[in-house]
Amino acid sequence: MTRPSPRALLVGAGAVLALGLLAMGGWFWRDAAQRQAQAAYAAAMTGAQPGRGAQATPEARAAAIQGLEAVLGRYPSAPGAAEAAYELGNLRYAAGAWAGARGAWEIALVKATASPTLRRLAQASIGYAWEAERKYGSAAEAYRAALAALGPQDFLYEQLLLNLARVQEVVGQKAEAVQTYRRVLAEVSQTRRGPEIRARLLALGAS
Questions:
Q1: Does position 207 have pLDDT exceeding 80, yes or no?
Q2: pLDDT digits (tens, 9 = 90+) for 44-84
Q3: Domain ranges of the chain
């Protein structure tokens, strides 16, 4: 059996060392890239603050939208993408860009795998965007999809049911709306919206 020469051993050791250094360098690069992405998202979210709220000027809102679009385009897979996409949807909605808002919320829905709360907010918001476009059938589908995995104790369950009932009223589905309102009263026993719901039932000829 031929023993490897000292040079071969050195070359082999050098290759192993090089691989180790490459792996370490890759880790440091990923860590640095992640920190850079986090800093970029933090800056974009902070920069978006002047564009929030009813008192925001169109120019401030447009600048906030542009900043969030830029960071999402640059770091689409970074951990902050879901929150930024949700905020982008809010800003676009406030600007009257319903389809664009819905698109941003759909991105947030896909990316918010680690945040059930953010996913529910995005799902509900998608329904609001459809309502704003007067596409009530699509809005109802969005609310039903959001409700599918929820129970009476879950965040937004009651509000999603009320949203669905409202849409059913708008399109003239009175029997379905009555059923949904009654479902709220039956399943959310501690609801604070009882008087409002009963008023809607009376308006629909039910009780």
A1: no
A2: 899 888 998 888 999 999 999 999 999 999 999 898 999 99
A3: 39-133, 136-207
Are the CB atoms for 165 and 144 separated by under 8 Å? Answer: no
- Euclidean distance between CA atoms 109 and 118, whole angstroms: 8
Q: What is the pLDDT of residues 97-143, one digit of tens each?
A: 999 999 999 999 999 998 999 999 999 999 999 999 999 999 999 99
DSSP code string of 163-187 = HHHHHHHHTT-HHHHHHHHHHHHHH
> Contact, 89 vs 56, CB < 8 A?
no
d(CA 58, CA 111): 28
Distance CA 128, CA 145 (A): 13
Rounded distance between C-alpha atoms, residue 97 and residue 195, angstroms: 34
With the CA atoms of 164, 166, 169 and 171 taken in that order, what torsion angle do they form, in degrees rounded to the nearest 10?
A: -70
**Torsion angle, alpha carbons of 27, 32, 37, 39, to 10:** 150
> 């039910």: which residue's tokens?
206
Q: What is the mean pLDDT of residues 182-186?
A: 96
Is the CB of residue 131 less than 8 Å from the CB of residue 162?
no
CATH class assigned to 39-133: mainly alpha
Dihedral sign for Cα atoms in the order 33, 35, 37, 40: negative
Which strand (E) or helix (H) includes residue 30?
Answer: helix 6-47
Burial class (CB in 10 A: 0-12, 13-18, 19+), 134: exposed
